[in-house]
Design goal:
- The protein has four helices and no strands.
- The longest helix has 26 residues.
- With 71 residues, the protein is mostly helical.
- It is globular, with a radius of gyration of 14 Å.
Length: 71
C-alpha cells in the first residue's frame, strides 16, 4: 500500500515543476534569459535557476514578481 504522504509530496513536486515548465516556456518564447528575468524582477538569478531546475521551491513573493514580469 503506498504511503499517502509520498503521494501528496509527489503531487506538490509536479505542481511546482508545472509552474517552472510554464515559466521556462515563456522565457524561451520571448528569447529571455534568467539574467533578464532577474533584472525585471529583482529576484536573484541563482534563486530563479535553482527553482527552475527543481532543486528549490519558489517563494510566493518571488513567483508573484516573476509572473508579473512575464505578463
Amino acid at each position: 500500500r503506498p504511503n499517502p504522504r509520498t503521494r501528496v509530496a509527489d503531487k506538490q513536486v509536479v505542481a511546482k515543476n508545472s509552474i517552472a515548465t510554464i515559466v521556462l516556456g515563456e522565457l524561451s518564447r520571448r528569447c529571455m534569459t534568467v539574467v533578464e528575468l532577474q533584472r525585471r524582477t529583482g529576484v536573484h538569478r541563482l534563486r530563479i535557476g535553482r527553482w527552475l531546475s527543481g532543486s528549490r521551491a519558489i517563494r510566493s513573493n518571488d513567483l508573484e514578481r516573476i509572473l508579473e514580469a512575464l505578463q
